[in-house]
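Honest question from a wet-lab person: if I give you the sequences of every part of a complex, can you actually get the arrangement of the whole thing, not just the pieces? Trying it with mine:
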Amino acid sequence: MNFRGGIALIRKSLFSFMASRGFFWTLSISWMMGPLVFMFVWLAAAGNGSIGGYNKSDFTSYYLILILVNQLTYPTSHWVIGENIQLGTLSTWLMRPLPVIYEAVASDMALKIVCMPLVLALVVLLGIVLGFGTVLSWTATALFVPALLMACMLRFLLSYTIALFAFWTQKIDSLLNVNDTLVFLLAGQVAPTLLLPGILRNTSMCLPFRYMLGFPVELLTGKLAVQDVVTGLVIQAIWVFVAFILQKVVLSHGIKKYTAIGG
Amino acid sequence: MRYLHLLVIFIRASFQREAAFRFNFAINFLNTVLNLVGSIGGLAVVFHNKDSLNGWGYSEAMALLGVYLLMLGLKGLVIGPSLDSLSGLSGELWTGLFDFTLLKPIPVQYHVSFRKWSLWSVVDITIAAAIIILAVFKHNSLPSDITYGTYILFPLSILISLLFIYSVLLILASAAFWYLGTPLMWIFDSLIQTGRFPVGIYPGFFRILLTWFIPVGFIITVPAQVLSGRTDTALLAGGALLSAVLFTAATMFFRQSIRKYSSASS
Amino acid sequence: MGYSISVDSIKKVYRISQRDAGLLPAVKSLFRPAYSEVTAVDGISFNLKQGEMVGFIGPNGAGKTTTLKMLSGLLHPTSGKIKAADFVPWDRKAAYLKKIGFLMGNKSQLTWDNTIGDSFFILKEIYGVSSNDFKNRMNELVELLELDDLLKKLARTLSLGERARCELASVLIHSPEILYLDEPTLGLDVSMQLKLRGFLKEYNRKYGTTVLLTSHYMSDIVSLCPRVILINKGRLSYDGDLAGLAEKVAPFKLLKFRLPDGEVLTENSLFEQYKVKAELVDAVNQERTLRVSKEYLLPLTAFLLGKWSLSDLSIEDPPIEALIDKVYREGIPL
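Yes, you can. This is the full assembly:
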């Protein structure tokens, strides 16, 4: 693991993003809109009662934390990778004494660092205005950390792997859009997974999407029973592993093809 | 008229571009289906638990969703892609190719607003229309509210909404001339999402923002109200007036932005 | 008037906002923005007759592209007047825009994802070219520029040379009266440059199109432009033929010859003994290159031929690039 190289890449991305932080802050705000809309919907629906065990305050906590987790797990580098492969800029990365994935990871980390202050401020503001009810337990918070880390990795790896298909096909934008749609639908934005009806909920539990976003949120807000937490963590770990292997396979095949053609 | 003929040419060119990517077609289809399932699914989940949302019943909310998808589809048909090719992420303003557009002997606003078509949106529009029809006729509460007036007022309200959308997008696209560095078009894309549901569910300040500032309320909720027979004629008339004013303001702002470009660019 | 293009004291001043780094200056700039002024073009005047082919030369940043943009209507000047094809360019009347073509060497107006043929067709429609005219145009351009195989290809699959030919064709579809060419041969290989030059020359001869061309390749200018306009730091410093420019800047010639083995020649000896001022520019083996001003040319030649029987003495003009380089750096001597 080339830490120095990695840190240098993060710094490079960080400075260039800082220069255009207006651009990225607008981006962050647009990412917040989806969860905000559904938060208000559920707040209006719950009224003074509760739905599926969630009352107004639960919904508020859920969605505010979702916004934070979304910001922390949202990958952006995958949109650029496809372009880099097509234009041949990948060659620059291949020449570096660093694994190709470093560039993407560094860029994503830098973006999160740049955007986090704004999002945190807005979430805190909304929390004050709307009332943040849930008390966070120590165990939940402790378990939240690995769940969050795995969520980041999973979300990143899946998008990254799809983006790598740019080695074979001209336009991966539509594939990435499908991925985004699936994340939007099944990861807990439209509704907390627990509120989904029967079949949909069970499918959601198995697919990786919930584990990219909704699962850590549910964990932290304390809506999960202990055995569900454990099961969730295990499934999450499995998916991370699968995604990692998948990424490695696709990347090595892709680079073979890329270098065979000459970039 | 020559400009109508040019529209045909633009549509043809866009079709030729899109048709080259068959793979994209299949994926677009998948995306549309997924979005549809998700949107209706989300609605179903909410109404699974409640009978009405802010005074809107299931079929009315479905009709609203239909209007939302319809407006998105209409926007995505031509004005969205065209203005995006000017001020969007890889737009002409950033690549430096806008000069070529200025050199063409046709009015810039017309050219920049109608040159790029995304024909896939026709599918989205059809589906949205289907949802609207489904919501209006399948569920019992609505047909009695549909009068002949609705058949006139609904298309009218859609036109007004389109004018709103165009004006807002034009203003955002023009703003890019002044604040080079931030493509602003997606401000609209993110805020319009609030139109999936009746604007009344949003608390005070937010609702005011969405009715008068980026007029999502006018764009989505008003046509849906017409469908449910709850036409607020005052609001409709007000919307017509406001949209005309906004359109004029947007056109003037665009002209001013072009003048800025030609006086201070390098 | 009779002029195709008439430029009168045209001036372009840019305001560039300036700000020091840091928070306080940023806040200050909100209330009182600070600007600095850059004069890109400082009072240029010239006239072109219909059918003239003129080269626009000058160092980078001299104001050439800015002037071309004002001529094509893309920019408003700060002051001054321009009349081109009887129009004021920045009014951007459709009738004027139909009469001009603007080729930008580093940018492409062809639609990236459409075929070349489609791009041409779209341009035909936008410019309102009749189907008959278009057919004739296409036949001619396809033949002269060898575009046959390219019409069905997508713009993004073309090589640089292929794209250059297509770009040139695209700008001629509507038979413009005036052509503005900004670095048309940028990045092209020698054969392609020759081909394009040949084409432009022929086209200008046949159709009498007024051509204003900028290029950093002096061979373009030399082969195409009987007249050059030199712009430096926003001012016009020369308007006339290239030979005249060369005269003014460097009224000297290069003398090349081969010294017989064992012989030696130095600048000092030339001067002291023969009062000939010459500069030794190159000395490889026994080959010598002397730079000498015109007045000393005859005496020097006579002396050299008299002293040794030289079989390969040649008298040349200094390379145009060296001249132009001198002009860019030192300006034109008065």
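Two things worth pointing out. The longest strand of chain C covers residues 3-18. DSSP finds twelve helices and 13 strands in chain C.
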